[in-house]
Amino acid sequence: MQQRPATLPDTTVARATPPAPGPDRETTTVNLIGGALSLTGIIGALVAFNSEFSSEWVNLSLLLVAIALFPVGVALMLYQGKNGRLRLRRQARRKARRAARNPQGSEPKEEAPPVGRKSRLIKIGAVVFIAGALLTAAAYLLGGYAIFFFGLPGIVLALSGLIAVVASL
Predict the structure, then answer these.
(1) Which of 84, 106, 125, 136 could be disulfide-bonded to 154 (CB atoms 3.0-4.6 Å)?
(2) SS3 of residue 8 by DSSP
(3) Cα separation of 59 and 151, whole Å?
(4) Taking Cα atoms as reference points, which of 165, 168, 158, 163 lies closest to residue 130?
(5) pLDDT tens, position by position, 125-152
(6) Which residues does 31 contact at the CB level (< 8 Å), separation at least 6?
(7) Nearest to residue 159, comparing CAs of 69, 76, 70?
(8) pLDDT computed for residue 103 by the predictor
(9) What would the pLDDT profile of 59-79 be if each residue is shown by its tens digit?
(10) What's residue 62's pLDDT?
(11) CB-facing half-sphere around the CA of 47: CA atoms within 13 A
(12) What beta strand segments (E) does the chain contain?
């Protein structure tokens, strides 16, 4: 005697529960990279100030690289992805405030369509790349010590912009 598998009646409604919002992997990765860059900048500056055995030019170039790394790291630590928990909470609070301000009868304004993440990253990367290239070109035109003061940060900016453009393709 075979038993039929139990089937649910047609009147049953299956409720799908939304997945619990967890940490966004992309945002977490970018924040960790930013923390590592900031820490590297701080350690590089400390080493540049406390190093007794290397020449002054090595210390100066290390300090310039550390000064360039620190703000980049801080900016990456403050990055919020489109699915980041803090961004989603902020958007929910704004939506609740707008709903409380607008009476039921009036229609809220249409929000602008979101800009594509990739196109925005390409634009930012291109601007950073061009700024780095111009800074490096100005350093080599000025010559002398300007290569250390403007050339190294320009190269870092140009490489960062190039990486951003390539990563968005």
Answers:
(1) 136
(2) coil
(3) 16
(4) 158
(5) 889 989 988 988 888 888 778 778 888 8
(6) 76, 77, 79
(7) 69
(8) 65
(9) 888 888 888 888 888 888 888
(10) 83
(11) 14
(12) none
